[in-house]
Amino acid sequence: MINLKYKKTKLEGFADAMTHGIGLIFSIIGYLILILSAAKSANTWIFIAFSIYGISLISTYLSSTIYHLYLYYHPVPNKHFKRILLLFDHCSIFFLIAGSYTPILLIFMRNKLGWSLFCLIWFLTFAGMVYKLKFIGKFKRFSLFMYLSMGWLILLSINDLIRLVPIDLIWFLLSGGIFYTVGIIFYQKKSIYFNHAIWHMFVLIGSIIHFLGIIFHIK
After folding, report:
1. Which of 69, 81, 141, 178 shows the greatest Cβ crowding within 10 Å of its Cβ?
2. Class of CATH domain 10-217
């Protein structure tokens, strides 16, 4: 259903918060599963990678949930406080992208190219956070370009990815990436009712697919 004069309703605001509130619950449960799995493996690399990945999931869904709950309960929000919450929300996206790369790079691709990609993705993450600190709320298309570019940066090492990473895991990574990417279409279509909540659902599904791929294929 299309609303040409888009104005977010109270129900839409509630859906925005609840969709990632569910993600927060899942991410906390997922973090516990990751830590237990890492402890069982007795592998230091797995423990480090899973810890970073799990924390990135929690931080992303926590910051998003808090931001949207604040908007839901404060129709006329304090601009300064809203900006701070939005900053955490957007910076956590960079953190999740790098966090999702970490298990793949630290466990399967500890070669020269893998370490180069690891350093690059985390450099871009911190650079993106600094950029957000300076330009939060501005140049939204460029921000989307940064997120997408970082998300698909793994294609630069596609040969090593295919050679070193289990093919089934690659399919999980690809499928999750597609959900993340397609969801952006709904994020931009503000004339569609519940567009933001729909985007949140695509993000949540992408996260679940990546999590399942990682937990099933890294022991």
Report:
1. 69
2. mainly alpha
